[in-house]
Amino acid sequence: MSGKPLEKYLKELRKSYNYSQEYVASQLNITRQTYSHYETGRISPPVNSLYNLSRLYNVPLNSFLELSINHHQESEQSSEKSMGNKSEGDDLNEFLKHISIPENSKKFKFLKRQEKLVLYYYQLLDDRDQEDILDFMKIKCHNRKLDAQRNPVMADTSGNE
């Protein structure tokens, strides 16, 4: 699967299960045209669709998320090449500048490094992507609660992932 674009992987999965685009779209509660755009790469599936795809095909959600992230990184890299190469170091410098602004430093003061990064990158996203992130977090929390209810012994040991 590594190195394979998300859209190609989605198409191969669908064909291997002998599903039509119409059927998969109905399972995702979207139109066939929208799903077709997922397979052509015109639209990236939101997190809730990736979650539903993982359940439909019994594929770990992380597999879809990694492919989606890789897809976004590749499209960002190609747009960066056309706009003048912005490196990861520049991104980190922007983050450091951002948290050193006095009004921001108060917000970030008591947060751990990872929490600071999550908040910083979240603020850079557009509204739709922020909603996708929130939906993903809600789904993860909901699933954790369900898992804890089903298997309380495992919930005690899985708190530190």
Describe the model:
The chain is mostly helical and 161 residues long. Helix content is 77%, strand content 0%. The protein has helices spanning 6-16, 21-28, 32-40, 47-57, 61-83, 88-100, 102-108, 113-124, 127-150, 152-157. The two termini are 24 Å apart.
Largest sheet: none
**Number of distinct helices:** 10
Q: What general form does the structure show? A: globular
Can you give the mean pLDDT? 77
β-strand amount: under 5%
Taking all Cα atoms into account, the compactness measure Rg is 19 Å
Q: What's the end-to-end separation, in Å?
A: 24 Å
Number of strands: 0
Q: Ranges with pLDDT <50 over ≥5 residues?
A: 82-88
**Percent helix among the residues?**
over 70%
Instruction: Spell the H/E element sequence.
Output: HHHHHHHHHH
Secondary structure category: mainly alpha
